[in-house]
Amino acid sequence: MGPWEPLSGVAVHAIARNPRTGLYSGWRGKPAGRFSGERFLSVKAIRTLFHPKTGLPFPAWLMTLCLIGVALLALQFAVGTVLDSLWFARPTDVAAVLVEWFTGGSIYPHLATTLIELGLGFAFGIVIAIILAMVLSSNQLLGQVAMPSSMPPIPCRRSR
After folding, report:
1. Per the domain annotation, does 154 fall within a domain?
2. How many domains does the chain have?
3. Is residue 158 part of a domain?
4. Which residue segment(s) compose the domain that 79 sits in?
5. Does the predicted TM-score (pTM) go above 0.70?
6. 35: Cβ–Cβ under 8 A, 6 or more apart, which residues?
7. Is 6 part of a structural domain of the chain?
8. Phi, psi of 110 (to 5 degrees)
9. pLDDT beyond 90 at 111
10. How far apart are CA 36 and CA 12, in angstroms?
11. pLDDT tens sequence across 41-96
12. Does residue 100 sit in the same domain as residue 112?
């Protein structure tokens, strides 16, 4: 019998991926699938259990949402008991104020001002960057001052 106890007559053994060949193998190096009268997890079933990029049994965004939820829940119960309510607000109180601001419409002028300032700052930054690039590329002395020679060149990495 393998490393796992059989579940209702089905023996489930560890199946690992061989890094050299990239293939999945079952218990004692035998191919994954049915053999010796026991049923094993198929390769297709294993691949659907784990995310192909992260190797986690669930997507990374779900893990992030769970961690944020746990942190907010911990903060909800910590305010007033461990944390002073003068300095920290409960997440439910913050959500209630945000709902009130959006339904009442009092936040929209502030959002419009913020977005206008963001756009103007981005536009000014682009104009200043283009002017500086033109000045530094046309004058060799200013270009050498702006790009010190003490920095080694960064080699480009070849893709395989």
Report:
1. no
2. 3
3. no
4. 60-104
5. no
6. 26
7. yes
8. -70, -40
9. yes
10. 13
11. 555 555 556 666 666 677 778 888 999 999 999 999 999 999 999 999 999 999 99
12. no
